[in-house]
Specification:
The chain has 132 residues and is α+β, with helices and mostly antiparallel strands. The chain has helices spanning 25-32, 115-129; strands at residues 18-19, 40-41, 52-65, 75-88, 92-98, 110-113. Pfam families: Zn_ribbon_3CxxC.
Length: 132
């Protein structure tokens, strides 16, 4: 026995480690429209993703619920939820939000995203890449 802790195995009931929010794309576009930028949301086409032109990592805000019934605390909030925004040569983007594990039990939490922070961060980055 090596004494190293192993995290829980991912099973079908676990929340995803990464998430995308395509339903927020129109809000991102609305935040950018006054500046005449028209980004597309980047779904892979037939599993092929276009070449990445830019990539930027920042943080958004979220709250998490713990699924582990043995925990004494049911959830937590975080202002440091990692998001990686990728810009592609076809003028589209993809924003990938990463989940978090609860420190007490190492269980991956179910996230509720602060949508305003997400829209602000993604729109700001797309505008910067567009020269605004």
């Amino acid at each position: 026995m090596t004494g190293k802790k192993k995290g829980p195995a991912q099973n079908l009931a676990d929340p995803p480690i990464t998430m995308v929010y395509p339903h927020l794309h129109q809000r991102v576009v609305d935040a950018i429209l006054p500046h005449d930028l028209y980004p597309g949301s980047e779904p892979p086409v037939d599993g092929i993703v276009p070449a990445v032109k830019n990539s930027y990592s920042t943080f958004v805000v979220g709250t998490f619920s713990c699924l582990n019934c043995g925990c004494h605390k049911s959830g937590w909030g975080s202002g440091k939820v990692t998001i990686v925004i990728k810009g592609y040569y076809n003028n589209s983007y993809r924003a990938i939000v990463y989940g978090q594990r609860f420190k007490l039990c190492n269980t991956l939490g179910i996230m509720t995203l602060d949508e305003e922070t997400y829209v602000d961060r993604v729109a700001r980055r797309v505008k910067r890449w567009g020269g605004i």
